[in-house]
What does this fold into?
Amino acid sequence: MRSALQKSPIPHTHTFLAKVLKNPVFDPSWHFHSEYQLFAVLRGRGTRFIGDNIKPFKEGDFTFTGPNLPHLWRSEHEGSQEEGSTWCEGIVVYFHSSFIGENLLQKEEGIKLRQLFKKSLRGIEVSGKTAEITRKMLLNLLTLDGFDGVLELLKLLNCLANTKEIELLASPGYTNSLKEGDTERMNKVYAHVMKHFKRKIAVSELAELTNMTPTSFSRYFRVHANKTFSEFISEIRIGHACKLLIEKKMNASQACYESGFHTLSNFNRQFKAITKRTPLAYKKEYLVK
It folds into this structure.
């Protein structure tokens, strides 16, 4: 498994790196790095983890994550090696804020950029017209050389700094407490849960997987995930239910049992607690968009 902290992918001769990702899955390992990251999903679906935020991802998603914010994109087709419709494709851009210069960021002209960079420490999801515009800018960055690329990146960041079509992802109190060894342990947990979340998963099962006692695992998980293990399982199941409601056009009862819940009343309660709306209201809101 790769190390959580890596050597910067940005060449020493450049201020940023833009590249296309085309693989069976996006980077499925829980990790973090010192660069800012812009990321647009062109193809692929699954579950996205940013800090303590868990959401399904799909084509068109655009995110901006700040330095050392743990993240991973786990494809629903993970394990498929044959190139085809199940492969994931996206555009990623890495950069350091130093390419702008600390002097500018402290001036009046740099206030909004400075605020944007601060927001990115919690992870940002971009939506609406802004997401469409910035996706095109990312595509442009793949073809631009020299200072033209730097100007396009600045325009993109300025667009993000001046839009209201953003949502902050990790909770306000989230802090990254992970060390390099922790990422391997958390990856084991995430992989196991994503494979088995439709059935009952006991804490003792994960404790054995991570060579810990149930009490130690519960305490460890809460510290590093910023939520209890039961809350984590519920968010995974509700995220899956959201995909079933929209993509598979299931009703609430079908999505409930297909997502690992045993009673419709508990499903409805958990769904509203996590999404702030009922399953029916969620479907209606999505169809209006």
Notes: The CA atoms of residues 47 and 56 lie 4 Å apart. The chain has two domains: 16-168, 197-288.
